[in-house]
């Protein structure tokens, strides 16, 4: 069933009007008609089933017929990653990470970062699209860029890791992760974290982690971290 997103959807919503863009997609592209059913989510777990009341490609409207509040996952995963120079590579990573399942992307500004600024509007659109495509009702958060020291200090996950290519005592991420506990993984820029940044993380309860023997691109490393966490959540 086709899934739409509207942050304003709540328990009292009975009727819903699609935007012109969504109306055109529903009627012209998907060729839905009056009486067909679709779903709408607010990205916070509320999932509504609705019937198309008016099949107008400019202002289609829906009648809500049922609602369900879906629970959050028992354990959450937060990805702290230095934005890549090419935005399309970052968007690709976030799209795939959303499909797999994760809770938050926090861009971090490091000493060796290639990008000092980041506009999050396109990234938010990417995760919304991926959420709808993968049929989920919980939208990952995309935060504003933050200096790594602030991000490290504010991180409250039960398991905290910083992935580092330099010389250090490391744990294997897959082996170290525990099922049922929240986790955060920090991925550095192309030039990696500085030794000082790693030391700061260690002082705040982090472990230095390895993602394997191969040197990975930043966006690949981010996706591997998300996949690794989700694999450890399997029964």
UniProtKB/TrEMBL annotation:
Pfam families: Methyltrans_RNA, PUA_4. Its EC number is 2.1.1.193. Keywords: Cytoplasm, Methyltransferase, rRNA processing, S-adenosyl-L-methionine, Transferase. Residues 18-64 form the Ribosomal RNA small subunit methyltransferase E PUA-like domain. CDD domains: RsmE-like. The keyword ATP-binding does not apply. It catalyses: uridine(1498) in 16S rRNA + S-adenosyl-L-methionine = N(3)-methyluridine(1498) in 16S rRNA + S-adenosyl-L-homocysteine + H(+). It is found in: Cytoplasm. Residues 77-228 form the Ribosomal RNA small subunit methyltransferase E methyltransferase domain. It is an enzyme of class 2 (transferase). GO terms for molecular function: rRNA (uridine-N3-)-methyltransferase activity. Its main location: cytoplasm. It comes from the Bacteria. GO terms for cellular component: cytoplasm. GO terms for biological process: rRNA base methylation. The keyword Ubl conjugation does not apply. Belongs to the RNA methyltransferase RsmE family. Specifically methylates the N3 position of the uracil ring of uridine 1498 (m3U1498) in 16S rRNA. Acts on the fully assembled 30S ribosomal subunit. This is Ribosomal RNA small subunit methyltransferase E. It comes from Flavobacterium aurantiibacter.
């Amino acid at each position: 069933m086709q899934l739409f997103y509207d942050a304003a959807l709540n328990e009292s919503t009975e009727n819903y009007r699609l935007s012109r863009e969504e109306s055109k997609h529903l009627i012209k592209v998907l060729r839905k008609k009056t009486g067909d059913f679709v779903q709408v989510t607010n990205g916070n777990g509320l999932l509504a089933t609705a019937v198309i009341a008016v099949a107008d490609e400019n202002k289609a409207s829906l009648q809500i017929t049922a609602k369900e509040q879906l629970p959050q996952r028992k354990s959450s995963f937060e990805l702290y990653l230095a934005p890549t120079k090419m935005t399309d590579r970052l968007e690709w990573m976030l799209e795939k990470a959303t499909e797999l399942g994760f809770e938050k992307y926090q861009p971090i500004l490091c000493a060796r970062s290639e990008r000092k600024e980041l506009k999050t509007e396109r990234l938010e659109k990417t995760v919304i699209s991926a959420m709808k495509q993968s049929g989920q009702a919980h939208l990952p958060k995309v935060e504003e860029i933050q200096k790594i020291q602030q991000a490290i200090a504010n991180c409250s996950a039960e398991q905290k890791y910083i992935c580092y290519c330099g010389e250090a005592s490391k744990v294997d991420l897959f082996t170290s992760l525990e099922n049922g506990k929240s986790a955060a993984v920090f991925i550095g820029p192309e030039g990696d974290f500085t030794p000082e940044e790693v030391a700061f993380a260690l002082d705040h309860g982090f472990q230095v982690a390895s993602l394997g023997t191969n040197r990975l691109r930043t966006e690949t490393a981010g996706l591997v971290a998300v996949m690794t966490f989700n694999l450890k959540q399997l029964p």
